[in-house]
Specification:
The chain is mostly helical.
Length: about 80
């Protein structure tokens, strides 16, 4: 999953025109841009509603995430 996120964030930074920086607070503020995965496991952890050790916050929707992160960046840069 880390390579997916690295590529997605690189494309989002490119679209934004500059690095968006530390994203964790923005991800938690914009969970609608992530599809929560509530079933399954990885052998050690089980998926559940909300954040979990198996799937984190879920799988990203790139277009929604770009829009949400750009709005968050604009809000926090004021």
């Amino acid at each position: 999953m880390a390579p997916l996120w690295a590529g997605l964030i690189a494309r989002i930074n490119q679209s934004a025109g500059s690095p968006l920086g530390y994203l964790n607070p923005s991800l938690y503020e914009n969970q609608q841009a992530l599809r929560d995965i509530t079933q399954g496991n990885n052998g050690d952890f089980a998926a559940a509603k909300g954040w979990d050790g198996c799937t984190g916050l879920g799988s990203p929707n790139g277009k929604l995430l770009l829009s949400a992160l750009q709005k968050s960046a604009a809000k926090h840069s004021r």
